[in-house]
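Per reviewer request, we include the raw input and output of the structure prediction for the construct analysed in the revised manuscript.
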Amino acid sequence: MGESNKKSVCLAYSGGLDTSCILAWLLEKGYEVICFMADVGQEEDFDAAKAKAEKIGAKKCVVEDLREQFVTEFITPAIQCNALYESKYLLGTALARPVIARAMIEVARTEGCFAVSHGCTGKGNDQVRFELAFYALQPDIVVIAPWRDPEFYDRLPGRDALLDYAAKKGIPVSSTKAKPWSMDENLAHCSYEGGS
């Protein structure tokens, strides 16, 4: 692997507050960043998100349509076995992560990335879903998880700090301090998260 490849990171990018700030932070650290976006059926202006990533400084932004794989390999089997969390919660987010991770690892390989990165919080199940899939598919991949890195979270401890950082960096975001939540939407369902 050449020297330039040692510094390339593939970032799971949504175009939202967290991953846009993580993109800027990775660039500050001297990495070349390839953003990866997965179309799993969310309402998204992928062209605008791609342009935003490139404006922030990503080398490129790869968008892949994973809807058919998501439905046939994940949603359909989940419906067939009535998969619910605590008998009531649809597993749309959980089901989407492996199909996203699989495609993202392929992009990381194609682009010669030594690492992958994500915007999952350091206390939730999402990081586990992504990282187990990454390691299963490529055991030697390095995972950069900013929300578990003290250098990142001491500087940007929550959404208010991210909003200030975005403003300082000129990163346009739709979140505000009054409405700090984010949404994860796909063909299976929609979930919300938020807080400081």
